[in-house]
Amino acid sequence: MGYVDEVIERVIAKNPGEPEFHQAVKEVLESLRPVVEANEALYRREALLERITEPDRQIKFRVPWVDDKGQVQVNTGYRVQFNNAIGPYKGGLRLHPSVNVGIIKFLGFEQIFKNSLTSLPIGGGKGGSDFDPKGKSDREVMAFCQSFMNELYKYIGADEDVPAGDIGTGAREIGYMFGQYKKIRGVYEGVLTGKGLSYGGSLARTEATGYGLLYLTEEMLKCNGKDIAGKTIAVSGAGNVAIYAIQKAQQLGGKPVTCSDSTGWIYDPEGIDVALLKEVKEVKRARLTEYAAARPSAQYHEGKGVWSVKCDIALPCATQNELGLDDAKALVANGCFAVAEGANMPTTMEATKYLQENKVLFAPGKAANAGGVATSALEMSQNSERLSWSFAEVDAKLKGIMVNIFHNLDDAAKKYGHAGDYVVGANIAGFEKVANAMLAQGVC
Ligand code: NDP
How far does CA 284 lie from the centroid of its chain? Predict the structure, then answer.
């Protein structure tokens, strides 16, 4: 059995009941075969794949808080510090009832390669809790966030581990967590990113993941003789990534016609009204039925269905494994020629394979959604300098980073004989830098 297969087997045996983590490790390691085969003796002796698939540490803790009725609630908090070979751990905090250690490990593992791809000095980590901010009052959210930070503060710091937002963790949650960290530690430092502008946040961080997704997609299309202008785009999700992906797609002349949340989806053939979507989701924190009620051209459907709409480009921006094989078949049948992942691992392995076999340009999340973490790293730089850059400056840097990421993965795919396979390209380009740093730093 080859080294890659041995390590995949070992990871599955050592981490039972963590299917998302198994899936991420399989997807990454299988696409690293060309590099691993070229360096097998060295990597085996150094146990490089065993080390890179084992987190530096996993922290799990109790998060007790009191709800508005005076009842004590208990959630579980996690922080997985996966790999700091190239910089302090960096990765978001997910607040969603589905959160468990396997999901945090899959996200932390992917984050290592994503962060490396940005070419900025940041290692990989991820965290979160099974707490659901939906339907909670601001006071309840604050009580949870303070209790979460009462434990997390021991393990994080501006040069150590710098968490950020993710599903369920937006500016409100980051603000409460930052306030509690400051109170406990008595230091004012850039320990979290995604902060508000009045206390160390970066302009363009809110827009960064969605905008970055479109910058990378634009470059991928350009290098394949195509264009966003005039194209119909299917988007899933209605959160931070989806909203700003829709906004940038429109600025580039595309026409996004769908969005979704966990209960239903919108088809709006006139094109999504971003101002209305922001009002419903960012201000009212309401369901998409309110969007449909306010917009005569929109149709609301319960459940899933975004990928059944005829489109040229698909941008999955909600959550993991939301685009399966049947969805991929529907997209291909409807003439879709490009899929770029705004969410983390939204496309299943079978669906990815089907899309690639059918010549659909496919940009994997660890490259396509890296604009968020890249801009978080720019926020860290501004905090260290005690300066704030303008929106245009950050946006220009973001665009440069995304264009550069695309060319790095395109080059890596070509170098190893897989031209056009951006999954292989992203994994190899992200891996090589981390692997070299780990080898240089000895057994640690
Ligand atoms: P938000 O919480 O802002 O939005 C998530 C959206 O996806 C919401 O519309 C939500 O619907 C929907 N959703 C969440 N879980 C499910 C589910 N199980 N089934 C169907 N729909 C679901 O999160 P973000 O936009 O920040 O994140 C979206 C994705 O992008 C995630 O995979 C995240 O890891 C990834 N990402 C985010 C970055 C960022 O900067 N924010 C950076 C890089 C990646 P509802 O409101 O009903 O819950």
Answer: 24
Instruction: Give the contacts of 38 (CB within 8 A, at least 6 positions apart).
Output: none
Q: How far is it, in rounded angstroms, from Cα 360 to Cα 353? A: 10
Q: Right CATH number for 208-368 from 3.30.70.100, 3.40.50.720, 3.10.20.70, 1.10.10.10?
A: 3.40.50.720
Give the whole-angstrom CA distance, residue 283 versus residue 179.
22
Phi, psi at 89, each rounded to 5°: -55, 140
Catalytic residue, chosen from 90, 105, 114, 126, is: 126
Per-residue DSSP letter, 417: T
Measured from the Cα of 344, ligand 1's closest atom is: 32
d(CA 362, CA 422): 7
Amino acid sitting at position 245: A
Q: Is 243 in the pocket of ligand 1 (CB under 6 A)?
A: no
| Residue 195, both tokens | 């902060």
- Residue to probe by mutation, ligand 1, list 166, 236, 291, most atoms within 8 Å of CB: 166
Residue pair 26/109 in contact (Cβ under 8 Å)? The answer is no
Cβ(168) – ligand 1 distance below 6 Å: yes
- Whose alpha carbon is nearest atom 37 of ligand 1? 166
Q: Which two tokens stand for residue 44?
A: 């085996």
Assigned CATH class of 55-199: alpha beta
Alpha carbon 385 to chain centroid, angstroms:
26
Locus of tokens 């969410």 = 343
94 CA from centroid of ligand 1 (Å): 9
Alpha-carbon Rg for the chain, nearest whole angstrom, is: 21
Give residue limits of the domains in the chain. Answer: 1-54, 55-199, 208-368
Question: Side-chain half-sphere of 88: how many Cα atoms within 13 Å?
Answer: 19
Q: pLDDT (tens digit, 0 to 9) for every residue of the chain, 444 residues total?
A: 899 999 999 999 999 999 999 999 999 999 999 999 999 999 999 999 999 999 999 999 999 999 999 999 999 999 999 999 999 999 999 999 999 999 999 999 999 999 999 999 999 999 999 999 999 999 999 999 999 999 999 999 999 999 999 999 999 999 999 999 999 999 999 999 999 999 999 999 999 999 999 999 999 999 999 999 999 999 999 999 999 999 999 999 999 999 999 999 999 999 999 999 999 999 999 999 999 999 999 999 999 999 999 999 999 999 999 999 999 999 999 999 999 999 999 999 999 999 999 999 999 999 999 999 999 999 999 999 999 999 999 999 999 999 999 999 999 999 999 999 999 999 999 999 999 999 999 998
Distance CA 16, CA 186 (A): 40
Asked if the domains at 55-199 and 208-368 fall in one CATH topology, the answer is yes
